[in-house]
Amino acid sequence: MSELHSNSVRGAQPVLLHHDVDGIREFDNPLPGWWTAIFWATIVYALLYPMYYHWGIGPTVLTELDSSMTEAAEAQLAKLGPMQVDESTIVALGSEPKKLLIGRAMFRTNCAVCHGADGGGAVGPNLCDDSYINIKAPMDFFTVIRAGVVAKGMPAWSPRYNDTQILLLAGYVASLRGSTPSTPKPPQGDQHPPAWSTFKSDALPVTPTVAPSKL
Q: pTM here?
């Protein structure tokens, strides 16, 4: 076997290997260089893929999904035009699932890092209970998201989003009240009665969970 291989490597006439399978024999020829290169490239890729997508080097697949959803949401926003900035608009968003989907895409891309993808809290507080630090009425959601609370680590989002986008995000955050996150943080701030909370987060379809701080 080694002699046959050495003959083919030295450029001698191709020789047949000794083994026979159903009358079929094969020459002792090396694989083409391009084929071998592709084979090793697939092995290297298979090692790099989990490092990039699952070990924290790059974004996860779900993060990329949320980014795509945000891009689609922004395209839809361009068709909506300006919205009236007032409490009635925020309240009305609770019964408009399509607009809440846009707000959810924005929330998961920008806010989930601090508040959790389901709003249950992470670095930032839980947004699903009846207790808030800076919220006393629905309009406060818009104000806090727009201006931020720098002392508490909540950035102002007005440099990045216009008022219509902030309204949609505020409507979604408000809709989280009364929902059940997977791992909720303990309540923080003052508890408020649910009288003004007319939102319906359960109107949204369920999608896979996958990215500023307490309102």
A: 0.60
